[in-house]
Design brief:
Blueprint (H helix, E strand, L loop, with lengths): L18 E2 L1 H7 L7 E4 L3 H6 L2 E2 L4 E2 L5 H4 L7 E5 L5 H12 L3 E5 L2 H7 L5 E2 L13 E5 L5 H12 L5 E5 L4 H8 L2 E2 L15 H8 L5 H14 L9 H14 L3 H22 L14
Parallel strand pairs: 1-6, 2-4, 2-5, 5-6, 8-9, 8-10
Antiparallel strand pairs: 3-7
Helix pairs in contact: 6-8, 6-11, 8-9, 9-10, 9-11, 10-11
Length: 285
């Protein structure tokens, strides 16, 4: 491969200008293969529409030469207001640094016009010095405390950090370490009535797609012992409790749980109508 040749997440040559459609990007978001999303809208455009495409992080096009090296080895989609000069110029600078960079066709405007989900920026907690959101919850997670981190990393902040601590210390740790508490009593990100924390996050983050709503029902049913709400809930409960027995380390369990929820999400989005045909030689009617 020539030294200056760069490939994107689909293996295409990125040595020249390329773009990605909102529809194609929407199919990648929420999956392990999603590209890094960089929103370079100027403050005026962002103030007019203070929402982010799920997983996007704001950066200034003026500083691209400073932050571009941190993107090495990643596949990047650049987002500006209409997908024109700011995103094209930023993507070009990234490609000069051997970063696989594409432009979102139509930018934020095109994404919004396609009626695709956006995350209200004021719902995303303050980031730490490294640009990460930091969350804290009770140790020994089972369902909600694995499902919520999965949702955050796949749709809100791919770099999010999760702290699992003794239940009685969650609020104190949140205060001392600047973390956002979740799935404990008397905090914003928690159960509300019959809804579990995952339900609340899907709604508050503006992620109410059919696939995530179906997954939310499964999580709620498994997490609140109402297995009759979803035929798939007993399977989710069994897998979740099994993982909690397999792993003593909460962070290792979270990593394994990411794959579990990746699979359930893709089933909800793409495969819920598929059945397993056995025996394979069954006579056709």
């Amino acid at each position: 491969m020539p030294k200056n040749r760069v490939l994107n997440h689909q293996g295409r040559n990125m040595s020249s200008y390329t773009s990605i459609s909102p529809d194609k990007l929407s199919r990648l978001i929420g999956t392990p293969n999603a590209p890094t999303l960089v929103d370079v809208r100027i403050d005026e455009d962002f103030s007019a529409d203070p929402r982010l495409i799920p997983g996007a992080v704001r950066r200034s096009h003026l500083d691209v030469q400073d932050w571009a090296p941190r993107m090495t080895g990643q596949s990047v989609v650049v987002i500006c207001h209409k997908g024109l000069k700011l995103s094209e110029g930023t993507a070009a600078w990234l490609r000069c640094g051997s970063v696989a960079a594409e432009v979102l066709e139509g930018g934020q405007v095109g994404w919004t016009q396609a009626q695709l989900p956006t995350v209200p920026a004021d719902r995303i907690p303050k980031r730490d010095g490294r640009g990460r959101t930091v969350w804290v919850t009770r140790s020994r997670p089972k369902i909600d405390r694995i499902a919520c981190p999965w949702l955050i990393r796949r749709f809100v902040d791919p770099a999010a950090v999760f702290l699992f601590v003794t239940p009685s210390e969650v609020e104190a740790v949140a205060e001392r370490f600047g973390a956002t508490p979740f799935d404990v009593e008397n905090v914003f990100w928690s159960h509300r009535g019959e809804l579990c924390t995952f339900d609340v996050m899907v709604s508050e983050f503006g992620l109410s797609t059919p696939a995530l709503e179906r997954l939310a029902l499964m999580v709620r049913a498994a997490d609140t012992a109402r297995l009759d709400l979803s035929p798939e809930a007993p399977g989710l409960l069994a897998a979740s409790l099994g993982l909690s027995r397999v792993f003593d380390d909460d962070l290792e369990q979270l990593e394994a749980g990411m794959l579990l929820y990746d699979a359930f999400y893709r089933w909800c989005r793409d495969a819920s109508g598929e059945t397993h045909n056995w025996p394979t030689n069954k006579a056709k009617p």
